[in-house]
Design brief:
The protein is mainly beta. The protein folds into 2 domains: 34 residues, no CATH class; 56 residues, no CATH class. It has 1 helix and 9 strands. The strands form 4 sheets. The chain has a 3-stranded antiparallel β-sheet, with no helix packed on it. The protein has a two-stranded antiparallel ribbon with strand order 1-2. The termini are far apart.
Length: 90
């Protein structure tokens, strides 16, 4: 699925997504609600490896929009920010 392509250019402002193989159309809001993010991580606090799957929703975490999940071992909150932006310090 992706944004519609006309004349070799992607229509980024389109309010729907299109399947390139079968031309099936889905409204943007409905498609984005169903997106899942799968994360493989190493916890910065305890150093353990883990895997998490959750809905792709950005929340505000310490003043920055981020996908926030918890370490399975130590329950430390780990943010993934856009462009790996640093969270604000207190």
């Amino acid at each position: 699925m992706g944004k519609p392509v006309e004349g070799g250019k992607v229509k980024v402002r389109a309010d729907f997504y299109v399947c390139p193989a079968c031309a099936y159309r889905v409204q943007k809001k409905k498609y984005e609600e169903g997106l899942q993010v799968h994360i493989l991580y190493v916890c910065p606090a305890c150093g353990k490896k883990g895997e998490v799957s959750q809905p792709f929703v950005r929340k505000t975490f310490q003043g920055v929009k981020a996908i926030v999940f918890s370490c399975e071992a130590c329950k430390e909150k780990i943010p993934i920010t856009k462009k790996l932006k640093d969270v604000k310090k207190k």
